From TrEMBL:
Adds a myristoyl group to the N-terminal glycine residue of certain cellular proteins. Pfam families: NMT (PF01233), NMT_C (PF02799). Residues 71-230 form the Glycylpeptide N-tetradecanoyltransferase N-terminal domain. The lineage of its organism: Eukaryota, Viridiplantae, Streptophyta, Embryophyta, Tracheophyta. PROSITE patterns: NMT_1, NMT_2. Keywords: Acyltransferase, Transferase. GO terms for cellular component: cytoplasm. It catalyses: N-terminal glycyl-[protein] + tetradecanoyl-CoA = N-tetradecanoylglycyl-[protein] + CoA + H(+). This is Glycylpeptide N-tetradecanoyltransferase. Residues 1-32 are annotated as: Disordered.
């Protein structure tokens, strides 16, 4: 599973008529921006050559109905998986990053904060918090050995990182154990050392040692072969700041005061029984989510342990709200978003852009449009500057109505060593990768 991923960084908004909703794309999700890093030392042609050697759907096979859906290659006997780590350049050594250690977590945080995904104009750089990293990297059943660092032997400084977490993902009717690879980051000064390909091979090796042979990942470029292609949409919550920092621009024929008025939201949620999720809600939310996700072709297979970890509110990491019937006390609806700020580079006034990313939402009694408008209201109350959403699941039904604007980048989803014969529509996908 030498999975590669790219990001187009954090592009600005794609101005559409009178909509100035801004953009920070989440193209760096799950396979951690790998192709972009590989591009430092490889041409696009070489990247495609690399992928042609991998067990992924190939362009030449598109539309070939004789190929069966499912695993492309069978698992290798564990005794045949390489037991020793891959060789690094002689000045560097492997380290396993203990994310339970405050000191190590801070090292990983600082490496990413200073060297991770930037937009093409170097205005923004993703700034995952230490709390977020602890949450993202330690789900139920995680493997500490999949949190892989590279240190300079002489200084012991952490100069590169890559991580994997286990997941159960349902593809049609089959639940498959997979890895999600993320946070591939090489120090800016070492991009010529060709560390990224070795790191990708090493995390692959360690995943295989746990008898896991499939992965799901995303990329901002087209590789062989996307299972679907999605678009990010962006809803401005603090339009003046977004315009001031160059994230959005003023729409045609728009003044700042008209723009602020256009995006104004009510002071509090309008749905009766709308409240923050609590620990006691985990069983009800799990039932709601499992029932809802069953309609999508590819979706996570969440149990109560997963829901407690991924969706129970965690300050500055993930927010979840639900609607509880005031008569039956039944939980009927659910919405959630996670927090991913970006550092604003070179701006005298602002240092951080606070972005909310739509996560999992379920509407049964409350219209989805109303539920998501309440999510925007609570995000605005929590001082988020922008609310981002992919056009996956049923999201398309509320985007335009709630004044989201389309972003200028696409996000491609891939499965490694698992073939899906026909590409899905974004609305058939029920998976959001961090």
């Amino acid at each position: 599973m030498d999975d590669n991923n790219t990001s187009s960084g954090a592009p600005k908004e794609n101005a559409v008529q009178e909509n100035d909703a801004g953009q920070i794309t989440k193209d760096e999700s799950s396979l951690g921006n790998m192709v972009r890093r590989l591009q430092d030392s490889m041409s696009i042609g070489k990247i495609h050559k690399f992928w042609e050697t991998q067990p992924v759907g190939q362009f030449k096979d598109v539309g070939d109905s004789s190929l069966a859906e499912g695993p492309i290659e069978p698992p290798t006997p564990l005794s045949e998986v390489k037991q020793e780590p891959y060789n690094l350049p002689s000045a560097y050594e492997w380290t396993t990053c203990d994310m339970d250690s405050e000191e190590t977590c801070l090292e990983v945080y600082n490496l990413l904060k200073n060297n991770y995904v930037e937009d093409d104009e170097n205005l923004f750089r993703f700034n995952y918090s230490r709390e977020f990293l602890g949450w993202a990297l330690r789900p139920p059943g995680y493997f500490a050995s999949w949190h892989i660092g590279v240190r300079a032997k002489a200084s012991k400084k952490l100069v590169a990182f890559i991580s994997g977490v286990p997941a159960r993902i349902r593809v049609r009717e089959h639940v498959v154990k997979m890895a999600e690879i993320n946070f591939l980051c090489v120090h800016k000064k070492l991009r010529s050392k060709r560390l990224a390909p070795v790191m990708i091979k090493e995390v692959t090796r360690r995943v295989h040692l746990e008898n896991i042979w499939q992965a799901a990942y995303t990329a901002g470029v087209v590789l062989p072969t996307p299972i679907t292609t999605c678009q990010y949409w962006h809803r401005s919550l603090n339009p003046k700041k977004l315009i001031d920092v160059g994230f959005s621009r003023l729409g045609a024929r728009m003044t700042m005061s008209r723009t602020i008025k256009l995006y104004k939201l009510p002071d509090s949620p309008v749905t009766p029984g709308f409240r923050k999720m609590e620990l006691r809600d985990v069983p009800a939310v799990t039932r709601l989510l499992r029932n809802y996700m069953s309609q999508f072709s590819v979706a996570p297979d969440f149990d109560e342990t997963d829901v407690e970890h991924w969706l129970l509110p965690k300050e500055s990491v993930v927010d979840s709200f639900l609607v509880e019937s005031q008569y039956t006390r039944e939980v009927t609806d659910f919405c959630s978003f996670y927090t991913l700020p970006s550092s604003i580079l070179g701006n005298q006034t602002y240092s951080t852009l606070k972005a909310a990313y739509s996560y999992y939402n379920v509407s049964t009694k409350t219209p989805l449009l109303q539920l998501m408008n309440d999510a925007l209201i609570v995000a605005k109350k929590k001082d988020f500057d922008v609310f981002n959403a992919l056009d996956v699941m049923e999201n398309e039904s509320f985007l335009k109505e709630l004044k989201f604007g389309p972003g200028d980048g696409q996000l491609h989803y891939y499965l490694y060593n698992y073939r899906i014969r026909h590409a899905l529509k974004p609305s058939e996908l029920g998976l959001v990768l961090l």
